[in-house]
Amino acid sequence: MKTLRITGVPEHFNFPWKKVVATQPFQKDGILLDWTDESRGSGQMNKDLREDKTDIALVLTESFLKDFEAGNPSKMIGFHVTSPLNWGIHISGASPVNTLDDIKKPVFLISRIGSGSQLMSYVLAKREGWNPEKLEFKIVNNLSGALEVMAPDNPEMFLWEKYTTKPWVDSNQMKRIGEVPSPWPCFAIIATNKALAEFGEVLFKLRDLVYEASKNLQTNASSVADISKNYELDATDVKEWFGQTIWAIDAEISGTQLVKSMNTMKELGIISEKIPLEDFLTYEHLSITD
Questions:
Q1: Per-residue model confidence (pLDDT) at position 90
Q2: Is the same domain home to 41 and 69?
């Protein structure tokens, strides 16, 4: 029995993957699917891809492209979530600061270098007119790490998906002082070159099973209740999030949109050059629409 390792953040976005993994669709073919929750985010998942600690990872698009440019030996086999990610901007719940206008020195708590929590700070800096070269970063690994170091007299910002953090905002451990959406589709499905060689078509069959599960979830009346129960989130919050979220349901990718996204990433300094699509996409298993 071979094991196909899959890694993703322990968040509601990955519910379709959890449902498919639970069915073990390739067990009869001698392949066991193994899911790992990674709370430290995309920076850590890129590291795991590089170090052969996972075969597939559900990584933030900007984080993967930055790491691919730096030598990550992996390819994108499709999108997972095509809608933007709505990042909450959080500080200590006891801080006297209430708006971004009150921030005089932008300091960010991030999961790790190259993570979405770091890269989205550049999107925010451009929007707010902050000098990107003067941003300061402190690595805290994950949400728990951010909660541990947040201090009322020091408004260090932590960018994280706003519904994931809402229980701590509701309990006043955190304060959300704004939001910043990603200007690109948020999650991509990434497979290592080694896994592509070893598992081949199985990876794309798995991707398509997830697309079918995602399609069903988006039309199923019980999805909000199921996600609320599985991720211990308020059903009203899940319903609001559900209305903003678009999971990918097929292997179509807009080349124009992807190029536009990379142009934005280049302007922000996330990547140094626009990367040719054929370098990081599994072209023969995707439908490039324009």
A1: 98
A2: yes
